[in-house]
Specification:
The protein is of the alpha+beta class. Helices cover 17% and strands 53% of the residues. The chain contains 2 helices and 18 strands. It is elongated and about 70 Å long.
């Protein structure tokens, strides 16, 4: 009888202990960083995949800022007021790929014989390849510019200053995998940019011209620290991720007439970073031990080329349309931005 009682007591104890182990194991795995639930290797792999996807979000924001800092609605005819509308489709080729379509409206005003000023609004229409890092389309990018010319002829020498800002909500979906629990969180993605550029016009015959230019540009793309939703057992806290650069710009813009009203525009440019910060995607709560920061830009390209080809037609003396394509190397050596451009400008 005693042996039977001992046997049953042993089974009860083992049953209770097994339930406690099953209850505590997930917490132990998450805290120790060893095991199959939220271990170090699996979570590190998940962070690597997320950082890889964030690269496209950051590069698309930087590319949009580069373009918007050049936004203008000038007809070079001395009009007091002008409006421009530009449709832009940017595709990032290489690794990883992504695409963004935007509509930009620019309003310009001549306030004196030597000064033009303007404002732009950029609205994102759609994106692709942004499943892991999704940037909200609800907020507009905003900015402005001022152009100074030393004479009444704006085609000779001009100095252009521009500023831009963007603040958008970004949702980050960290993928689950072997030894990694998926996580989801939101943060604010902010982009700021400043540019100053000088250029001068060189007449090449009666209608052809070259406009060499040189300038300096600063762009910063950054998010804020965020913690993943508590719906998962081990929500991670990700620190701020900052990508910024100071670049010197140089190039030449050529205007060559094809007919009385149609011209070919060719733009060749190069930019060289004077300072650059690529940023690291890093977990700061240490809920899973041993995680390493992941560099956002692993193959840095400090010197980048650009080529733009466009056809421009003068519809009337106060209106013109243009269509073009632009190829621009990115700070990450594996990516090139290909932009399709379609726009019109009218003066009043």
């Amino acid at each position: 009888m005693i042996r039977v009682l001992i046997k049953y007591l042993r089974q009860i104890v083992l049953f209770v202990l097994s339930g406690a182990v099953l209850t505590l194991c997930p917490l132990a795995w998450a805290q120790s960083g060893a095991g199959g639930y939220a271990n170090t290797a699996g979570t590190q792999s998940s962070l690597n995949v997320t950082a890889y996807a964030l690269r496209s979000a950051y590069n698309l924001q930087a590319m949009a800022m580069h373009e918007n800092l050049l936004a203008d609605a000038d007809l070079e005819g001395g009009q007091d007021f002008s409006v421009g509308v530009l449709g832009r489709d940017v595709s990032l080729t290489g690794q990883p790929t992504a695409q963004s379509s935007n509509l930009v409206v620019v309003v310009g005003k001549r306030i004196s014989p030597n000064w033009r000023v303007g404002l732009y609004v950029d609205q994102t229409i759609g994106t692709e390849g942004m499943d892991v890092a999704h940037v909200s389309q609800s907020a507009n990018d905003l900015g402005g510019y001022g152009v100074w010319t030393p004479t009444d002829n704006p085609r000779d020498v001009q100095v252009r200053m521009s500023v831009g800002w963007s603040g958008k909500t970004m949702s980050v979906q960290r993928p689950a995998g072997a030894g990694a629990e998926g996580g989801w969180g939101t943060t604010q993605l902010e982009t700021v940019g400043y540019q100053v550029q000088g250029s001068w016009r060189l007449a090449m015959g009666k209608r052809s011209s070259l406009r060499p230019y040189a300038g300096l540009r600063y762009v910063r793309v950054s998010d804020k620290r965020y913690t993943e939703t508590a719906d998962v057992s081990t929500p991670l806290t990700l620190g701020p991720l900052v990508q910024e650069s100071v670049a010197v710009l140089a190039g030449v813009q050529a205007n060559m007439p094809l007919t009385q009203r149609v011209s070919l525009l060719v733009h060749l440019g190069i930019e060289q970073d004077l300072a650059h910060q690529g940023g690291d995607y890093s977990e700061t709560s240490q809920k899973v031990a041993g995680l390493l920061p992941v560099a956002l830009n692993t193959i840095y390209n400090p010197t980048r080329g650009m080529l733009e080809l466009a056809i421009q037609k003068e519809v009337t003396p106060l209106a013109r349309v243009h269509v073009g394509v632009k190829f621009a190397e990115q700070a990450h050596a594996s990516q090139v931005a290909v932009s399709m451009l379609l726009g019109c400008v009218t003066g009043f």
